[in-house]
From TrEMBL:
Chain ranges passing through the membrane: none
Protein name: Carbon-nitrogen hydrolase
InterPro entries hit by this protein: Aliph_Amidase/BUP, C-N_Hydrolase, C-N_Hydrolase_sf
Pfam families: CN_hydrolase (PF00795)
Length: 291
């Protein structure tokens, strides 16, 4: 299938887990009604972004994967005939938790999960308190409509992660994400931060010749201290913006992505062909010095 209809669901969340899940399902239905074949939800869409504090009670938000949320979404995926990309807080076993994305195929089949590899620990983003780094490696999933690669939020800053995912055969790379501005920050800094975030992800599309879809949450959280900046977007395999979401509003957008463009751009800009893989061994070092 050369062309795929991709749905991006950018939404705000509340402290009510069931309410957020129900809302996401309504928006999946909306995307499907607009023709979406693959629908991507934002990072940790069943809750507020709880990693702003280190609070043991927040572990109660976690669930098994497969589990209640994937069970509900499998029913919807099968009913609507859509692939669903669902980012969830995974409880693997007692005391072991991951930031994980599940992939459900268009017939409702649970295809598997990707566990976030890169875990931040910044002010208001204390993810190392909650999440164990992923141990499944980088993943691609053969869905009905395309072979898709999944990375999650902080992964988006790492060209190594996108490169490996592309080399595994991903035809589209998806990034469920949750990032925003401190509301006491000046507008110039806000603009610079958003541009850096968008630019690094568009560069993954260019370097790998693979379309990129990034879905971010929106709205004020953390008692008004954080404005999640929305700005979800989709690019083609040359990094051209096909859609750019607002910074303020919930949006459900369906974008057509032409998978055949990857072959065209890779032939005309043959970055993959020209890679000097024999020279890359030093990249496995933390820093290249004498120690």
């Amino acid at each position: 299938m050369a062309k795929v209809q991709v749905g991006l669901v950018q939404m705000s969340c509340t402290s009510n887990k069931q309410e957020n899940l129900d809302k996401a399902i309504l928006k999946i239905r909306e995307a499907a009604a607009k023709g979406a074949q693959i629908v991507c939800l934002q990072e940790l869409f069943t809750s507020l972004y709880f990693c702003d504090v280190e609070d043991y009670d927040n572990f109660n938000l976690a669930e098994a994967i497969p589990g209640p949320s994937t069970d509900a979404l499998q029913v919807i995926a099968k009913e609507l005939g859509v692939v669903i990309i669902a980012s969830l807080f995974e409880k693997r076993t007692a005391g072991l938790y991951h930031n994980t994305t599940a992939v459900l195929d268009a017939d409702g089949t649970y295809l598997g999960k990707y566990r976030k590899m890169h875990i931040p620990d910044d002010p208001a983003f204390y993810e190392k308190f909650y999440f164990t780094p992923g141990d499944l490696g980088y993943k691609v999933f053969q869905t009905k409509f395309a072979k898709i690669g999944i990375l999650i939020c902080w992964d988006q800053w790492y060209p190594e992660a996108s490169r490996i995912t592309a080399l595994m055969g991903a035809e589209i790379m998806f990034y469920p994400t949750a990032i925003g501005w401190a509301t006491d920050q000046d507008e110039e800094t806000n603009k610079d931060q958003y541009n850096a975030w968008q630019t690094i992800q568009r560069s993954h599309a260019v370097a790998n010749g693979v379309p990129v879809v990034s879905v971010n949450r929106v709205g004020l959280e953390q008692d008004g201290a954080m404005k999640f900046w929305g700005g979800s977007f989709a690019t083609n395999a040359q990094g051209k913006l096909l859609y750019l979401g607002s910074h303020d509003n919930e949006e459900t957008k369906v974008v057509e992505i032409d998978l055949s463009e990857s072959d065209f751009f890779r032939k005309h800009w043959p970055f993959l062909r020209d890679r000097r893989i024999d020279s890359y061994q030093p990249i496995t070092k933390r820093f290249i010095d004498e120690d």
